[in-house]
Design goal:
By secondary structure, this protein is of the alpha/beta class. 44% of the residues lie in helices and 12% in strands. The protein contains eight helices and five strands.
Length: 224
Amino acid sequence: LIEEVYNALSSLPWSGDIRGFDSPEPIYKLATYATCHWLSTVHEDQMLDLLRRQLCLTPSAHRVEIQNMGFQKFIQEGYTHRNSGEYEESRYFRVACGVGQALASCQRDVLGFLVNLNASHWVAVVMNFREGEILYGDSLGEPIPGDLAAMLDWWTNGHTGLTFVHKLLPITRQHDGFSCGLLSFNALAHYVLPEEYLLIDSSAVDDEQLNVMMRVIKQHSQQV
């Protein structure tokens, strides 16, 4: 795997941006996947983009909605202005409103996204509208923070009038200081595509990040 990564990286120019993804990122930042550095928002969005493409090719998963990292901000700001009517009226929230309406009207069944806690830790959130469940996965094993739970309850109740049950999302336990980004994504991907994404072992984090890097390089190369 390491030799494959070296060969792939050596074939890339180290100038310009990575192509084929919603968020631009300089090519040289691909190297982060091969380090023990914390993955950024752009890296998380790259993995989510890859998952969305895979879902599009999986007929049985057409009722799954995966949102990028900006989705958390829309719900958070809507919750902050929940008593003003701004969430329902402002065009700024039209994406979040549209997703909520699609889920509430059974056009979609499941919504998944990642959340950044305190700009230092990645966690996974899955909302199953068919089952009335909110699932939360934290690789450190911590329960969902009260303010996040209240925000998610407000959003789901506002679109359905129902109170969702909170459950734990299966996730690999973290034994280092950097792998939360990969493990939270893996937990989300395992929930929506369990046969394609097994829960990874904590000892396999380094290899899995290299595998993700290879998938990003492949997507970039196809666009070039």
